[in-house]
Hints:
The structure holds 2 protein chains of 2 kinds.
Chain A: E1 5-7, E2 12-16, H1 22-29, E3 33-37, E4 42-47, H2 49-57, H3 62-72, H4 79-91, E5 95-100, E6 104-109, H5 112-120, E7 128-133, E8 136-139, H6 144-154, E9 158-160, H7 183-195, E10 198-201, H8 208-219, E11 223-227, H9 230-243, E12 251-254, E13 264-268, H10 269-272, H11 285-288, E14 293-296, H12 304-311, E15 317-322, H13 332-338, E16 342-345, H14 348-353, E17 360-367, H15 371-379, H16 382-390, H17 393-405, E18 410-414, H18 418-428, E19 432-433, H19 439-450, E20 456-459, E21 472-477, H20 485-493, E22 505-512, H21 516-530, E23 535-539, H22 540-547
Chain B: H1 2-6, H2 13-18, H3 22-31, H4 43-50, H5 53-61, H6 65-76, H7 83-91, H8 97-112, E1 116-117, E2 124-125, H9 127-133, H10 149-152, H11 158-167, H12 176-188, H13 190-198, H14 202-212, E3 217-219, H15 226-233, E4 238-241, E5 244-246, H16 249-255, E6 273-276, H17 279-303, H18 319-329, H19 333-345, E7 349-351, E8 359-361, H20 363-370, H21 373-386, H22 416-429, E9 434-436, H23 438-448, H24 452-459, H25 470-485, E10 488-489, E11 492-493, H26 495-500, H27 539-553, E12 565-567, E13 571-574, H28 580-589, E14 591-594, E15 599-602, H29 605-613, H30 618-628, H31 635-647, E16 658-661, H32 665-673, E17 682-686, E18 689-692, H33 696-706, H34 747-765, H35 796-809, E19 813-818, E20 824-835, E21 838-843, E22 848-853, E23 857-862
Antiparallel strand pairs in B: 1-2, 3-5, 4-5, 6-9, 7-8, 10-11, 12-13, 13-15, 14-15, 16-18, 17-18, 19-20, 19-23, 20-21, 21-22
Helix pairs in contact in B: 3-34, 6-8, 6-9, 11-12, 14-15, 14-16, 17-19, 18-19, 21-27, 22-25, 23-25, 29-31
Amino acid sequence: MNGPLIVQSDKTLLLEVDHEQAADCRRAIAPFAELERAPEHIHTYRVTPLGLWNARAAGHDAEQVVDALVEYSRYPVPHALLVDIAETMDRYGRLTLSKHPAHGLVLTTTDRPVLEEVLKSKRIAPLVGARIDPDTVAVHPSERGQIKQTLLKLGWPAEDLAGYVDGEAHPIELAEDGWALRPYQKQAVENFWHGGSGVVVLPCGAGKTLVGAGAMAQARSTTLILVTNTVSARQWKHELVKRTSLTEDEIGEYSGTRKEIRPVTIATYQVLTTRRKGVYPHLELFDSRDWGLIVYDEVHLLPAPVFKFTADLQARRRLGLTATLVREDGRESDVFSLIGPKRFDAPWKEIEAQGYIAPADCVEVRVNLTDSERLAYATAETEEKYRFCATTDTKRKVTEAIVRRFAGQQILVIGQYIDQLDELGEHLGAPVIKGETSNAQREKLFESFRQGEISVLVVSKVANFSIDLPEATVAIQVSGTFGSRQEEAQRLGRVLRPKADGHQAHFYSVVARDTLDQDFAAHRQRFLAEQGYAYRIMDADEVLAEEG
Amino acid sequence: MSTEEKSAAPRSLAEALRVRDDVSLAALLRSRPDLITPVPTDLTQLATRAGTRASVVRALERLDRFALQTAEALAVAPDPASYGELLALMGGDEEDPAVAAALPRAVALLREQALVWGADDRLRLVRTARELLAPSPQHPSPTGLGPTVREATAGMSPGRIQEILAAVGLPSTHDSVSAVAALGALFADRRRTAALLAGLPAESREVLDRLVWGPPYGQVTHDPAAHLRALLDRGLLLPTAPGTVVLPREVALHLRAGRAHRVPEPVPPPVEAAATHRPQVVDATAAGQALAALATVEELLKEWDEGGPSVLRAGGLSVRDLKRTAVALDVSEPVAAFWLELAYGAGLIASDGEADERYAATPAYDEWRELPPAERWARLAGAWLTATRTPGVVGGRDAKDRTLSALGPNLDRSAAPEVRHRVLALLAGLPEGASPVEGSLLARLRWERPLRGAQQQRETGTGEARDDDLRSRIARWTLSEAELLGVTGRGALAAPGRALIGAPEAPRPAEREAEPEGPGAKLPVHHHRTPPVLVAPTPAERAAATATAARLLAPLFPEPLDHVLLQADLTAVAPGPLERELADVLGVLADVESKGGATVYRFTPGSVRRALDAGRSAADLHAFLARHSRTPVPQPLTYLIDDVARRHGRLRVGAASAYVRCDDDATLDEILADKRAAALGLRRLAPTVLAAQADPAALLEGLRAIGFAPAAESAAGDVLIARADSHRTPPRAAPEPVPDGPPAPDDTLLAAAIRAVRAGDLAATTPRKPGPGGPGSGADGDGAGAPGGTLPRTGAAETLATMQAAVLTGEALWIGYVNAEGAASQRVIAPIRVEGGFVTAYDHTADEVRTYPLHRVTGVAELADDAG
Lengths: 548, 868
């Protein structure tokens, strides 16, 4: 026994990456274990019931799982854990959702007591209809998502054999002229298509849009794409026109300003969740066409109401795209149960190693508060504390120093607080993009940044997502949304697109020492640190001295 | 066994016992230890005690199923019964070879246990056992048989009996006794009864079929239907009470083809193997689990290091504290209860006995911690094996509906050690590396020790074999606990676990190769097989077994590592168990995030601060990490340590018992300069403040002694900081197992007891040469009913001479003795030395060397020559 894997009693698996069998082992455990952390030496996977059930759904049985663990494990695997795995996997498939020729959607069981147990649940009762026979009960078709989600919570996941509707066919081809899907993108599309529905996790800059395009080319049907904001919608459109056989006319935009419904329609979450007089007026979009595929961009941001709508769309293929499936609200499991299990996941460092994203140098710069600032910080109201320390004056000096240091390169300064950004913009002589900036103005600024006409751009959190700034090589974060891990990852993603000259990317996070800012920063960095991005820590004095 | 051959058939149990040899008596006493607490004076008393209800019930409860079935069959057989009759009852008319093969062993076992005595032609069940097992309306027999014709017709009018005789075609007789006998004989005759039954309508036979396997009682209306009337007329059903009829035993036996039991179970059900793993895998898994067990116990104790949860007033741990412990250990509550009880049973935790009672580690814990891992485990496993406390019942309710709390009272289940040992022994009987099918294991245990009530249910077929009885539950707990503890791995007994129960290293081929041949074997069973009754190992044997287990386990533990892997996400991974010192330091410097084969640590500002608090400097920590890391120390970690160290210690907190405040600096200077003040431990904190280590009273005293006139200040300003210290109970003994009944005696005790009984018996029963003084009329203090019953009387000179002669010849003497209270007794002694008016002798009656003043010896007599 000298395998690369250590099975912990809390069901985490530690994989020693430098071990010669590490790659084999990774392949063996990937179907059922979630990669949780991927720092430099030891990667951590976690075995969860959801992961085990997904493995069952993908055709793996308990024996394979146990074999994989036992074979690669360095130490004997606790018997209780093996038993638990077998028992958990055994729970899957006792209940099946399927189409009945006469009764429509039905829930059937191979184990009557299980059916009796779940039917007793108060949460299941309103979702089911008449009992057809002792082993079968009718389910209202619109409750397909809801009942799956509830059964999952009850610990009796249903196998969904009811299938998908094909939707209205529409020819879509990838236009691979001079470019091709990268191997991992192909793999992601394949995994997704094979699984029917699910989530693909790829680092920022790794080309998630193309995975979406690839999936559409597979589906060859009308597609609804849900994105976070209008700028992002435009970029999707731009990218689809460029990369597929679709033309401008075939792609509609459904947003606050435009309400086009075309074979491929790109809608924003915001417009879908607009409420007027207690109703969602734009919900009909889901029914406006016979969509064959629904793509959820940035699925980690999926607003709660969309979960509810999604529950009603279980008969359509669903593809979720994200860089970081960490939700600060902990609703990851809802994403998995409603959109589908994770179908593809690649550690950031692996993609980096393949050269598809730029290597990044992450630096946390710690600035000291002055004595008067410290006193003011200590006496500040609790809710003001973070704002106070995040916008300290010293940060400005450091930011300026960094900007000077990378003069000539494309630099993004990202922050949370408008006052701070305005002030920075003023001192750096750079334009500021914030919530009130019009879309036209934004696109204009982005374009001139792309062209290199301006080299420094100060952006608020409105630019957090899906703005495509290919030539940004340095990002300086001066403040953020408290401890949001995915925001940090998204921001790093701004600089990860591979540089034409193979330049290294730089990501600076300026943090006020010994304050809340530092605590939040530690939390924010956790995801990236777990992805193998090692932050260096520098003192502000060093940065300022380097300059001197 | 020369005595057996020459003696005639014994006429009582006492006589039967008297002719048994020492080995055979030892076997009896070993399996029924209650018989020698206290040691009976002679065999008659032993026999009487063996016939008491409590003792018989105890013995019956400890029989295996087939022996019990045999006893039950004997209880429905004529008394005495011949071996042949018994065999017929057990095997039925068509003989069952398995029964025939197993019966001699069962009979021998019953004989050994003194439940059955008499030769094969006259087997007698001890009367109490017969009363317990024989059917009666209140206690239906497990056999489902009813009373005999004779018993059932006891209250019947002679006329009615004669009518029945007529109905079945027998000639009438003069009296009821012979009539009943004739009827009984008829029913016992298969051929004639068959003819009788053949003449009945089918409905009637159906009625009989319903009653045949019991319960044998049925209800009839006042005016029974014709088919019932036919049965009643022929005596095939006999009335017992108005409206109730019973199927007489003879008829039932006829219908059952002679079998007393529907399903005789002569062969113990085998324990089936569910899966077989390679022994190495089993041992490694068990060792891994053993290591985890140690870690868990240590973690628990660490959690409680500065004082554990408080003790409930009724004793034990509150449900909330159990929950909290379960969360802390990251296990379920029953498992947490197991760990708690394990630590408690091993004497590692106890209540501290203070006014505000709390649980805490005992001093024994500190010793235990110093042991090598394998020995630490052996201590735990040894304590677990013999404990009567059963964590499995925690959370349940006792007879008074009080919740049973962990570490609380009423958790003792006396059967636990024996069941535990038996379960492991059965596992040891499987091939190496095989895990058992739980059901078959439980079935085997039930066969070995059937519950008398449960069995009846089985036999009447009214229910599935139930396995929620206490023994089965204990067995199931044993299986899961053994796995947790690492006694088993992947369900199979591992080598250390095997050693723990003292089983041989590899399973023996077959346990039961030598069966007694034929029915005539009178040899007590212990000559043939390992007794099912557990022979409790002596403490010495147990210590040897645990030592062997520890020795076997030690090499299975992975070598402790001296390095960890540090990562930039501020974690450290120890890919295996760490050396003690490294683990201790790391445990302070970082928080444990995940446990198992490896340990994942996370460095946080809090954890680094903890290390600095523990007196380490940042440089120490850097050096420590650099020394133990295989890879370069990540920059963020270095930074973290420096950053925390930078702020550490800027504020200073110290402990002072008292202070001196004075507006005049000069006075304080004066005090500090005074040599006499040195004992007060004064230190200047500020120009006008001195801190003192002495308490305020001593400080006042001291300052006054120097010549100052200090005044005490109110306590509000006083700073008292006590250092948190490891909290320990006073020395505490681990809880003793609480067995029901006396402990199984060891060989020494058994031999001594037998000698004592025999000697007493000798004293009570041997014919004696008439002593020179002749039988006196002295008080008879001996209640053993010795023949003669009087004390020997001889003159002092005679006594002395006889004693001295006996010292030379080494002969035993029979003496009369009056003790200081004036109670007279008879004793058999072998004098060793006579001097100074005392005789020092081996007293056979008391089984020890005693010294008697000669003047209290009433007289002495030699033992008759044939006393053997």
